[in-house]
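thought: fold this chain, then report.
action: predict
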Amino acid sequence: MHRLAISALWLLVAGQAAAFGQTSTYTKIDLDTCAVVSRDTESGSMAWSCPGLNDIPVWVAEGDLRYLVSFGKDARRQVAASQTLPPFNRINDTIEWRLGADGRPYATILRWFTEFDDGRQGQVLVVTRTGQGGTCHVAYVDALANSDANELARQAADGLSPGFDCRSATPVIFGKAGGSR
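observation:
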């Protein structure tokens, strides 16, 4: 019964999101064309500044075979700049930006590919809150365990991002967890 109530709640949230004009637009990340902002030759870690949506830059860093992604002019100082997934990972090249009725982005959805020490591989949709109030991970959706992972990620973005407190809240696992994280 509890699972049914949660499903009904998220269907309501998704319906409200459509009614309030939430839409998506997409941009690409091409690290080969992004500006290198730092490079550590000893560790091999790097950070890039990439064009995002309109005037919102995308900050990407890689170190210890794990990526970090943040958004905005202050991206390196946001919580998202220190958030990654525990297993080794890499990011996809397409960012989905969730836009409010005013056309401003309030969240992004980005697919991360994970690889565990035992060789298992996974895919996680990382929902990141953006804009005023902070930039941080809000939710993780296992893209292999959920056949409707993209829709679940949009529901998480629409339902959780606007009121999410980046300073104290913990990202949630949204949908079925299948071990991809």
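thought: worth noting. The CA atoms of residues 78 and 145 lie 30 Å apart.
final: tokens above.
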